[in-house]
Amino acid sequence: MTRERLYIFDTTLRDGAQTAGIEFSLEDKIAITALLEELGVDYVEGGYPGANPVDTEFFREPRTRRATFTAFGMTKRAGRSAGNDPGVQALLQSAAPATCFVAKTWDRQVELALGITPEENLETIRETVAAAVDADKEAMVDCEHFFDGFKSNPDYALSCVRTATEAGARWVVLCDTNGGTMPAEISEIVGKVLAVAPGSRLGIHAHDDTGQAVANTLAAVDAGVRQIQGALNGLGERCGNANLITIIPTLVLKPWFADRFETGIDKARLERLTRISRAFDDRLNRAPSRQAPYVGASAFATKAGIHASALLKDFSSYEHVPPESVGNERNIMVSQQAGKSNLLTALARHGIHLAKDDRRLERLLATVKEREARGYSYDGADASFCVLAHEVLGTLPTWFTVENYRASVERRHNALGEEVTVTEAVVKIRVDGELLMSVAEGNGPVNALDLAMRKDLGKYSSRIEDLELVDFKVRILDGGTGAVTRVLVESRDGSGERWFTIGVSPNIIDASFEALYESIAYKLLKTEAAQRTTERVA
């Protein structure tokens, strides 16, 4: 049986930026794009070039290799041509090969918000799409408030879809912009839209204001649409957008959909889902939802009692999918066996191969659990996990030892009488018995410590020349005066690889220094021959 292709369109970098408290830096956008590429989505909507400096810079060059890089913006303004509309031209001149234009499709909004006639609005849709097609861009139209518009004036809403399709839009996306439409309504309305446009040209964009964005998306797929828009972990304005982290495994693993449809995300990529979801939350400096479907820490957890005893005999009865199929793990609190397969997989990623009955695996598992109880989280800090694994397994070289360090912050007046803040760090390192002391000034204590520690590593200095700190995030795990602080540091080197390391301490400087130290250790591990590392562990 031939399965129909579904296309996954991620809106995290645009819709996610609408989330209260979320601001993406350029480095955030680059890192999140890498996660989306790893997951295997078909489209990455990067934002609105021209709307702000970050988005404009992000669109100066292509940012994806596999997915279609997509720019978002408005249709042209009424009364001027697409060629004379700065917003449209910013989209067409960006490095993105695809453009998604948002268009009003509710006649009430056309007249009240835009102040133009419904006929003029159709013309703006037609001319904008035609301009994108002429510029060799893959054109898409997000039909804003489509379902409300359809319920108000179905003929006009359908005319917007027809106009966009006839103008050459590859996708016309039906938007439940205020999230108030019910799944049964979605199915019924999509069925009527199919009379004017084929499902292979239609998409769905659902918001979660009634908690039904995932249900509405799946209802639209059942009814005929073939493009799915959503965001990682359901990010988005108000209550969020359809959660791709829930939708994707449902499409890939559930026979109701998997028997009829295929996506660009195979089961091998799906096994990275939990790690990607949690790494994304760490990037946002927020705690992952423990109850999140498929990827939450509690998604496959069972406490002691009848379920736990039954689960030990028949896992499938209490788990709707195998946890390892989405990269998660079974958490039976009465069992010490949980997590071994995940550790073996994580170790293999770093060229470390152990037998399942190796006693060192038990020791590593116990260490990871003990450290997680203290506030560490290795889902978004894989480089720290690599360093920890080598340490527990006894294969971590002693390149250098830190004798002591000091960081100071001083506010003073400079020679011009201006008030300035100066941060200085001193780090003493011993390499092969030789004591090396480095001093550096930075923008803050973490920056100063980073510069000082990397300033002189003796014979290892050449191996970290291309290492740089990219980002730094702090989260308070417990409140009060004895609060525990978790620091996540992102680093990169000349190869383009990025990695995350973690530090935990009641003292923010201690936590930061630990994460910085492990970043350097990981970089030095990278320079070791993979074969030599494998032989030492074996």
From TrEMBL:
Q: Where is the Pyruvate carboxyltransferase domain?
A: 6-271
- Sorted alphabetically, which PROSITE patterns does this protein's record hold? AIPM_HOMOCIT_SYNTH_1 (PS00815), AIPM_HOMOCIT_SYNTH_2 (PS00816), PYR_CT (PS50991)
- Show the catalytic activity: pyruvate + acetyl-CoA + H2O = (3R)-citramalate + CoA + H(+)
- Record-listed E.C. numbers: 2.3.3.21
Q: Which Pfam families has this protein been placed in? A: HCS_D2, HMGL-like, LeuA_dimer
Query: Keyword Transferase: yes or no?
Result: yes
**Enzyme class at the top of the EC tree:** transferase
Query: Which keywords, in A-to-Z order, does the entry hold?
Result: Amino-acid biosynthesis, Branched-chain amino acid biosynthesis, Isoleucine biosynthesis, Transferase
List the CDD domains hit by this protein, alphabetically.
DRE_TIM_LeuA3
Q: Among its keywords, does the record have Disulfide bond?
A: no
- List the SUPFAM superfamilies hit by this protein, alphabetically: 2-isopropylmalate synthase LeuA, allosteric (dimerisation) domain (SSF110921), Aldolase (SSF51569)
Protein's pathway: Amino-acid biosynthesis; L-isoleucine biosynthesis; 2-oxobutanoate from pyruvate: step 1/3
Q: Report the sequence similarity comment from the record.
A: Belongs to the alpha-IPM synthase/homocitrate synthase family.
What is the recorded name of this protein? Citramalate synthase
- Its source organism is Devosia albogilva
Q: Where is the organism placed in the taxonomic lineage, from the top?
A: Bacteria, Pseudomonadati, Pseudomonadota, Alphaproteobacteria, Hyphomicrobiales
Originating gene: cimA
